[in-house]
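Checklist before submission:
- one chain only
- standard amino acids only
- sequence pasted in full

Submission:
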Amino acid sequence: MEKIAIISDVHSNITAFKAVLEDIRKRDITRIFCAGDLVLKGSSPCEVLDLAKEKCEVIVRGNAEEGAMCGETPHKTWHRETLGKERMEFISQLPLYFDFYMSGSLIRMFHASKNDTHFRIMDFDNAEEKMKLFEDESGKVPDIVLYGDIHIQYMQKFFNKTIVNVGSVGNIVEYLHHDNTIEDMSESLQAYYTILEGEYDSREKSSLSINFVRVPYDIEKEIEIARKNNIPSLENYIEKIKKLRSSVSMQVVAGCIIERDGRVLMTKQAKQKYYGKWDFPAGHVEEYESIMDAAVRETFEETGCRIRLIGALPICTVFLENGETLFIMRFLAELISEDIKFDTSEILDVQWIDIDALKNMGEDEVRGHDIAMKTLIDLEENNVYPLEIYDDRIYKGDK
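Returned file contents:
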């Protein structure tokens, strides 16, 4: 039988990565697969990527790699420039998934899903949602899926399928039952990976084991390297690797409503969870980015249009099923230039849609249907406030 180490979400944490590689060596494992997110966040993007290229037989692309390729925040720009042209070219060529057989089971490894690195399935999502990870447009349905993305190691069987999150090497988090009053989190603050043991490349059924591993590493040493390398978002990184706090209990989304001659500019979503649904141009506010800058950036990234913000709509609050709170900041905008272009991995189409036609669309046609309808009402009733209600400067504060 052969053992394969499956790693994911190293996030430039060279100290944790080396500790895991040493543990893998001690177990005499020579085959290593990586489920993506080698870069962003941590101290040493170049060293981590170079070491992964040397040690990993298979690497698939994660959303961190995509963020490094095209993100325009200071954090992502620093990582892209630090990695340099040759490494970025390597990242751009990484596949989205990898299929292989082991002990008679078809196993598919990806970062978040087969075709979308931003499609997110949590450990507490229901079985029906999780089954979306097994969907395949060609009919080649895996028996087992291995993924990363959420930084939470777990395994579950349902509907004759097995889903495995392999854990995070560089940035473990907790979403459920987390208590910020616990001072010592060393039992959990380790590097996580997974080991498969079975007959590699065999379609004949035989025994297969899936083992979870956690490896302690020197967090203070990693912080020292991060300080030395003067990484952006340093304090945020320290918070993540020292305190195990989930970074997604609250999310902020900024977007724009662009109206012209009774029509609004809409994007058709390509992401698996919202595939084919219309939405206003919008996205998450990045680290060290103002809300208004985020609205302008997201509109340009999703539509190719240059815009000017001219007003603010009321803020919407959404409580998600996973316990997170979503704040949606909506702005009224006017076009500066219209040059429709978009990334087809995220957006299927961009069109001007008649407002009356949009009102008649159902929940299966419009993402966040209730909020979209409320947005149209706010637009009709002119519930628009001056931009001066936002102080768009970035302040640095004490903890």
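Reviewer check: The mean pLDDT is 90.
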